[in-house]
Amino acid sequence: MELCPLGKRGPEEKQEPIWIEAARLATPVGHPFYEHLNRLLSKRGFDTFAESACASFYSKTGRPGLALLVGYFEGIDSERGIAWRTADSLALRSFLGFELSQITPDHSTISRTRRLIDVETHRKVFLWVLGMLAEEGLLKGNTVAIDGTTLEANAALRSIVRRDTGEGYDDFLRGLAKESGIETPTREQLARLDRKRKNKGNNDDWKNPHDPDAQITKMKDGRTHLAHKAEHAVDLETGAILAVTLQPAAIGDTQTVYETLTQCGGHVREVAAHAESKAEQLNPEGPAELVLDKGYHSNDVLVILKDVEVRSYCSEPDRGRRNWNGKEEEQSAVYQNRRHIRGERGKRLLRQRGELAERSFAHMYETGGMRRTHLRRHDNIIKRLLIHAGAFNLSLIMRKITGRGTPRGFQGRPNVLVLVIQMLIWFLTDAAQQRRSQSTTQTVTFQKNVTSFRLPHLCLIPGAPLFGN
Questions:
Q1: How far apart, in whole angstroms, are the C-alpha atoms of residue 334 and residue 328?
Q2: What is the 3 state secondary structure string of 117-142?
Q3: Cβ-proximal residues to 275 (8 Å cutoff; 6+ apart), any chain
Q4: Which terminal Cβ of the chain has fewer Cβ within 10 Å, N or C?
Q5: Rounded CA separation 447/392 (Å)
Q6: 245-303 residue pLDDT tens
Q7: 65 or 97, which is more confident
Q8: How far is CA 76 from CA 36, 71, 81, 173, 366, in A?
Q9: HSE of 281 in the Cβ direction (CA atoms, 13 Å)?
């Protein structure tokens, strides 16, 4: 009996040629979303802008440009995933300008490019996209909402060390156990000792050596983790992100709102200064109204907003009866904000804040894949967030042009069209058959009148028309 070698599929297996002419290679069919996006960016001159903005970081020769926009549109959280997806997808190759014979960049090239280009250049790209929004009429900058969320850091709690001595957490607990008279403590004894301590997760005492910017905080789901805080300024008239900041996770909302509002105002004024005549509705003075949730409510915040002539709509927590002796300025600001939020416009703006601000978080961090950061230190993470926010704003333009803001949004369009056509055919066929055949009329008797109508027969068989005969 003759034995076949492993891997041989049979005598009819065809030997592939070693050399293939480039002219014989199949032309890849690009994704319709990326084709529209490429035409939009080419029309606006994105390549020329990017080359001029990054000219100081490169020599005259180099490889084709990279686009971290893929991370947002494909929902990929890591740069390794972006590199793998770019190499695997013909549509992304076409979008990024790589030919079939070219090798796409690996994750080390993407990481090196991110580290090479500074934060201000990434911010220029974000502002360039804001200029596109202004020209499309999708940027007003008059009524702004600010909200924050926590991002899980790429660091583990078990790795934290003391800031003063560099001692690990387990070694610190063993030292406490020896001071209490336990020479060789067990894991249960250490856990019991640690459970009774107060302020054991104080960020003034502990840090992670791999990511010193990460801080111990409670996440949205109740877990305690090392995290960062991202804060968005969102245009409540269009849903566009006007500014995104990254700050320490343990700092309260009443302290972080100032930096986000300052950046938001600067971005709006800069875009208004360079905007064309199409952006007539853009407020050149910056935000005139600010909508906040109750986490931002404090006397200092409301007084400062009143001093800078920004109308506040901040939800007020129930603090009971307050003593305003010697605090006339704070009382005036709080009562003025209270009148704002109790009006019809204030209630509507607070509802919009809950919708649009949370929507930006959902798109960037849930479907966008950035709820857990794969980068460390704020200067690296904010670069990725700026590109992510720019891609989110680009999706608003794509939604206006094509009706879909992401590539996955195009997946259901043919199915919906086919379903509508099928339902239309079913209803027309059913109506024609009812006209040809003699239909039965059933009578339903009510208390005072009698109404005659035809009852359609519902068909619940899978694959069959919804309305049968």
A1: 10
A2: CCHHHHHHHHHHHHHHHHHCCCCCCC
A3: 131, 134, 135, 282
A4: N
A5: 58
A6: 999 998 999 999 999 999 999 999 999 888 765 556 777 888 999 999 999 999 999 99
A7: 97
A8: 21, 5, 6, 39, 10
A9: 12
Q: What is the pTM of this model?
A: 0.76
Residue 86 one-letter amino acid: T
39 bridge partner residues: none
pLDDT of residue 231: 95
Residue 103, strand partner residues: none
Assigned token pair, 208:
């992670």
The lowest-confidence range among 51-55, 67-71, 158-162, 184-188 is 67-71
Q: Which one is predicted more confidently, 55 or 244?
A: 244
pLDDT given at position 66:
56
348: amino acid identity, one letter: R
